[in-house]
Design goal:
The complex is a heterodimer. Helix content of chain A is about 25%, strand content about 35%. In chain A, strand 4 and strand 5 form a beta hairpin. A 6-stranded mixed beta sheet of chain A has the order 6-7-8-3-9-10, with helices on both faces. In chain A, strands 13-12-11-14-20 form a 5-stranded antiparallel beta sheet. Chain A is of the alpha+beta class. In chain A, helix 2 runs parallel beside helix 4. Chain B starts with 8 loop residues before the first helix and ends in a 9-residue tail after the last helix. In chain B, helix 6 crosses helix 7 and helix 10 packs antiparallel against helix 11. Chain B is mainly alpha-helical. Chain B is globular. Classes of the chains: A alpha+beta, B mainly alpha. Chains A and B meet through strand 6, helix 2 and helix 4 of A and helix 6 of B.
């Protein structure tokens, strides 16, 4: 089922939770709504569910406006963060509940419950109550209950956030596989970028009620349209440094009192939008920085702290009043207080407007 | 594994304290019981001359002095009818009202919440005359239904507040899940939410039944026909004007009056204790 949100607004009192949201989710697509808490992603999900009614705008399922369709008539499966299993019913009764409401024959209900329980490997739990099974098992039951009625749309509200780390990673893969198998359109809310990046076809990234961008994980990572996306996607996050913008001939020079970076011609061409001496934000990811010998076009700084990440080391370097993070190999041997030269992979820099935070290259 | 525990001194102290506190109550019941099965009492509570004569109201007509009393069974039925109707109405209405006040937004909700409780602040006696006029006007005077209406109206605010508190505890997500599964609002209410507030329903039912069963002042004031008497009124009449007071009979009738209360409490108290947790992981 294709889902379209058109100019959707939701307010709570004076607070605008979702501001003029336009979003199209294709049939069979797995879309993540990603953003910090309070960004409006759960509100958006609840509007799709029909539990909240938009104040203005339209929600369409397969070209039909559903603003006034009750949740029970939308044929949506939903899995909540708390799982929301019915504590007074056994696992079996929980899963059978949506089918009973559809007044399916008893035999068929039994068959379907068995089938889906098999798929989620919870057959042995059917007679137990939700309070008697573990969090991971509760989650499977909640998913089974959401999917047993073969919904047209599956909504997942932070379904993994209550699981422990290893279970979370295995469930990610399972949910993704299941979604592809069933080909069911799925919207998934999360504040965890790793989850969004690993599971979804496309990510809609939201902040303060506004959709920042929607795109494939690669898109958002490689071509962030603004500083918010650049800073939110990627771990460790992108470094930002405020610099002066100068054009000399066909080259751009980024300058501040402690360093000066000259961009080669082919890279400069992307950014020739600004006037001399304007302030811009230089963004570069830790993995595109390295520590090396003294050379021109590098940033000098003092090591503030070295963090061990297992596979790599993350080096905090103090540059003036700013601190930037550099990802280095395990063999890096610098110590706190050492002076180092940070090299930039200039092909992977981003420049943002200091006023509105939009990318000077990718912003529409 | 269960181990035999030796009681700690603090535990013993607690038991002693509880025993001391409950002693007067236990003593009073014992006195009532002994008095009801004997001609006389020795040393306060020891029965002397066991007899069932005091319980004769169960199978025969009783007369005290010149006054002939009604058969107790229709009166018991009246009391059950009164307490039962009050319980039923109070539970039903408070479940609906409590849900609305807990879950729905409508203009005047705050006002209703604040003012309903004021009704509870009135002593019932203060309303007697006004209520008499109202009942008389709507033709409910001298009828059990009239007393039921008054009692329910006066008890409802408290019951609704109690039930609202129980509804407040139910997370929205459970209710939402019910809607997503295909429930209408009414279905979600009785299939998903009510089963989870059983302890609250039991609590309200107990209070309503006890209040109805022990209801005296309105029954005494608004009911004149002896066929509509309730047990509380009957007991009052037994005492009469104290000239011919039969203590043995009064003790037996008093005990009889208490039986349903104790039975009802024992039954519903169990469901008060069984609160089922789980399903929600926060």
């Amino acid at each position: 089922m294709e889902v379209v949100m058109r100019d959707v607004v939701k307010r709570f009192g004076n607070f605008t939770a979702v501001d003029n949201l336009n979003l199209t989710i294709k049939d069979g697509e797995f879309v993540a709504l990603l953003g910090p808490s309070g960004c409006g992603k759960t509100t958006t999900l609840l509007m799709l569910a029909g539990l909240y009614k938009p104040d203005s705008g339209e929600i369409l399922f397969d070209d039909k406006i559903v603003n006034d369709v009750l949740p029970k008539d939308r044929n949506i499966g939903m899995c909540f963060q708390s799982y929301a299993l019915y504590p007074h019913m056994t696992v079996e009764e929980n899963i059978a509940f949506p089918l009973k409401l559809k007044k399916l024959p008893k035999k068929e209900i039994e068959r379907k419950v068995k089938e889906i329980a098999g798929k989620f490997q919870i057959e042995h739990l059917l007679k137990r109550y939700p309070g008697q099974i573990s969090g991971g098992q509760q989650q499977r039951v909640a998913l089974a209950r959401a999917l047993v009625k073969e919904p047209n749309l599956l909504l997942l509200d932070e379904p993994l956030s209550n699981l422990d780390a290893s279970l979370r990673i295995s469930m990610r893969a399972e949910i993704k596989k299941l979604q592809k198998e069933l080909g069911i359109t799925t919207v998934f809310v999360t504040h965890d970028q790793a989850e969004a990046l690993s599971m979804s076809d496309r990510i809609a990234i939201m902040n303060k009620g506004k959709l920042q961008d929607i795109g494939t994980p690669e898109d958002l990572y490689m071509r962030p349209k603004n500083m918010f996306i650049a800073g939110f996607i990627g771990n460790p996050p992108m470094n930002f440094l405020e610099v002066g913008f100068n054009v000399e001939g066909d080259k751009i020079i980024l300058r501040r009192n402690d360093f000066e970076i000259t961009l080669p011609k082919e890279i400069s061409a992307n950014y020739m939008k600004k006037q001399n001496d304007e302030r811009v934000i230089l963004g570069i990811r830790p993995e595109h920085l390295s520590i090396g010998n003294e050379a021109p076009n590098t940033i000098k700084g003092e090591i503030f702290v070295v963090e061990h990440l297992g596979k790599d080391k993350l080096v905090d370097v103090k540059v003036g009043n700013d601190r930037i993070k550099v990802l280095t190999g395990q063999d890096f041997e610098g110590k706190m207080g050492d002076m180092v030269n940070v090299h930039l992979d200039l092909k992977n820099i981003h420049l943002f407007d200091a006023d509105d935070g939009n990318s000077m290259k990718w912003a529409a | 594994m269960k181990a035999i525990k030796i009681m700690s001194p603090s535990r013993i102290a607690i038991y002693l304290l509880l025993a001391a506190v409950s002693f007067p109550i236990v003593f009073a019941y014992l006195w009532l019981f002994s008095g009801s099965i004997s001609d006389e009492l020795e040393f306060g509570i020891v029965p002397k001359g066991i007899t069932l004569e005091n319980w004769r109201f169960l199978w025969s007509e009783i007369t005290i002095g010149t006054k002939v009393f009604e058969n107790i069974w229709p009166i018991t039925l009246n009391s059950l009818l009164l307490a039962g109707s009050i319980t039923l109405l109070e539970v039903l209405i408070s479940l609906l009202a409590g849900y609305a006040l807990s879950r729905m937004n409508f203009p005047g909700k705050d006002f209703i919440l604040k003012t309903t409780i004021i009704l509870h602040a009135f002593p019932g006696v203060a309303l007697l005359i006004a209520l008499y006029y109202v009942l008389n006007y709507i033709g409910m005077i001298d009828k059990i239904a009239g007393v039921v209406l008054i009692k329910v109206a006066l008890e409802l605010p408290m019951a609704t507040w109690m039930i609202k508190g129980f509804f407040d505890e139910i997370p929205w997500e459970i209710e939402w899940a019910a809607y997503m599964d295909g429930c209408s609002r009414l279905q979600a209410w009785y299939k998903i939410i009510l089963p989870q507030i059983k302890p609250g329903i039991a609590a309200v039912a107990i209070f309503a039944f006890l209040a109805g069963w022990s209801e005296f002042i309105y029954s005494y004031t608004f009911i004149f026909s002896s066929e509509n008497y309730t047990l509380a009124v009957f007991l009052k009449n037994l005492i009469g004007d104290f000239r011919f007071l039969d203590y043995g009979l009064l003790a037996a009738a008093g005990l009889f009056y208490m039986i349903p209360v104790i039975a009802f409490f024992l039954i519903s108290q169990k469901s008060l204790m069984t609160i089922k947790f789980g399903g929600i992981k926060g």
